[in-house]
Design brief:
70 residues; mainly alpha
Length: 70
């Protein structure tokens, strides 16, 4: 069984994109529709915001950690 580090780079990028897509889907279906956006400082409905940048940073860090594990 291959580890994440040994998997092709295209698969690793796809994994990161899937996680980002999950965040966007969560934003659109839960945060925007239930009104949670008003409780999140710095959140802008329909635009990129600090929450998106934070999610991107978490995804990049997760992929980086999984790539560096032995």
């Amino acid at each position: 069984m291959a580890t994440f580090r040994e998997s092709p780079v295209a698969l690793q990028i796809g994994f990161g994109l899937t996680l980002m897509n999950s965040w966007v889907l969560f934003e659109e279906t839960v945060v925007d529709r239930t009104g949670l956006a008003h409780l999140m400082p710095g959140y802008r409905i329909g635009d990129a915001c600090v929450w998106d940048a934070g999610a991107l940073a978490v995804v990049i860090a997760l992929v980086w950690v999984l790539r560096s594990r032995r």
